[in-house]
């Protein structure tokens, strides 16, 4: 950012942080040092609460003229700040401290270095990325809009999040989701859906889970949907229809071996081509700017790794390049 005109007040940042996941004293010291080095004014500080995950704090920061908003916490804090900043033109700077750090991983932002992450807020470049918007309808007929940055899901994917053991997550991080999946997969019951892309005629399917991705990398550098890009104006959709544990093993092989290894070479891509029809029976991938899904019965719903309760239908659409993110200068 160019230095302010002498007649203009110095720009200032706002920090929205989760006190449970952040060392507030270290964060304050790091932000103060970076702001002073950049010639910025004193930063505003907002602590998230059970009543406000960060949306209201971010809107207050905008009203107070913040030039950038630093989101310090897990994926829930980043999602909440992004919701408040969407379409504002004011950038989000991410200080990742959570288990997944999903958007940070997809944007290849620095992980595990507080000072480097904070410095990006004041001296980083800006990149416009897409935001997913999900209109979720409950069994009582109420509908509410939510935003997400990485992935939305209904079915087993969301049930895994509901059933993840907090004590295990605290000790092993994202691997706790694998534990939940192993416990749930053998007894997972497929459910019926009707879905429509771009408002076209509906299709029907019996599925275990449907995932709608804004970008495709999961924790562990897992290339779940390798064609997904965070700024292409398109959602990548995975319809999972495994039959028993063998079906889940085929999906696991596709995600870890084919997407993570074979796609990197021409020979590997030819091997994938030969097994394509078998893969499509267990995991169908689709691409569209929006998708409407109606469920035969209520299913759990998740956004960026957080549970949002059961829904009976969702309409998910992309809001292209509506969020500005501070990223390293290249």
TrEMBL record:
> Coiled-coil intervals in this record?
none
Q: Which Pfam families match?
A: DAGK_cat, YegS_C
Q: What is this protein's name?
A: DAGKc domain-containing protein
Molecular function per GO: kinase activity; methylglyoxal synthase activity
Which residue intervals define the domain DAGKc in the entry? 8-137
Q: Mind listing the GO biological process terms from this record? A: methylglyoxal biosynthetic process
PANTHER family with a match to the protein in the record: METHYLGLYOXAL SYNTHASE (PTHR30492)
Q: Name one GO cellular component term.
A: cytosol
